[in-house]
Amino acid sequence: MSTDERAAHLETGSGATGDEAGRLDRVRSILARAETWAEPPADLIDRVLEDVAGEPVPAGRWSGWPSAAIAAALALVLVGLIAFVDSGEPRPAGTVIAMTGTELAPAATGEARIEERPSGWYVHLEVRGLPPAGEGSYYEAWLWRNGEGVSMGTFHLRSPDPVALWSGVSPEDYPVVRITLQDEGGGPAPSGRVVMTGMLPGPWPR
Q1: Which of 189, 182, 188, 180 is nearest to 102 (CA)?
Q2: Helix 67-87 vs helix 18-32: angle between axes, to the nearest 10 degrees?
Q3: What is the pLDDT of residues 66-95, one digit of tens each?
Q4: Could you tell me the residue ranges of all domains in the chain?
Q5: Burial degree of 15 (CB within 10 A; 0-12, 13-18, 19+)
Q6: Average pLDDT over residues 13-33
Q7: Which end of the chain is more exposed for a tag (fewer CB within 10 A), N or C?
């Protein structure tokens, strides 16, 4: 669905279908509430900053902001809201591993967000600049250490959606992430064709 079609649905309530319609309707409901457009307290920004920083900020620090700057700040909030609608879910929490392409995929970049859950480690992988795997091939993600890899799952990247992976071993014990290009029928071992790699930044938080 295009941006114009989403905007039309927010205005009229028609056009979108399925899960996306539900998400847009929730946003439309928020925008329709009178309290959404109520005049905020004069010290609202100071109070938010105090909550974030954990300490008081100088009173009236932001009272001198021009209206254009305040409008720009509200625009950023709207951009975040649109990003939520586009993604369909909040951005996952966790430790971020920056991913870079190798000589086999020099334009590839991305990030892997790893979050510990009761059943294992959930990995939310987003990559850019990596072409979809061709027919008869696929990508496989690995946690790696000292020449030993543990698979986190396979994907082909033939859609723009983020990739969901799972690991049964701790990234603290296997701190390197590798993505390899595999051939169908080539067996379960890593192919050696590493297209992206990254490393856990520092010790894993316990």
Answers
A1: 180
A2: 150
A3: 555 455 555 445 545 555 444 444 444 678
A4: 3-87, 95-199
A5: middle
A6: 67
A7: C
Residue 24 CA to residue 47 CA, distance in Å, equals 30
pTM score of the predicted model: 0.55
> Who contacts 96 (Cβ-Cβ below 8 Å, separation ≥6)?
111, 112, 113, 201
Residue 184 in contact with residue 138, Cβ under 8 Å?
Answer: yes
80-105 b/e (C-beta count within 10 Å ≥ 16 → b): eeeeebeeeeeeeebbebebebeeeb
Q: What mean pLDDT do residues 115-126 have?
A: 92
In degrees rounded to 5, what are phi and psi of residue 44? -60, -50
Confidence of residue 205 (pLDDT cuts 50, 70, 90): very low
Q: Which CATH number fits domain 95-199: 3.30.70.260, 3.50.50.60, 3.10.310.10, 2.60.40.200?
A: 2.60.40.200
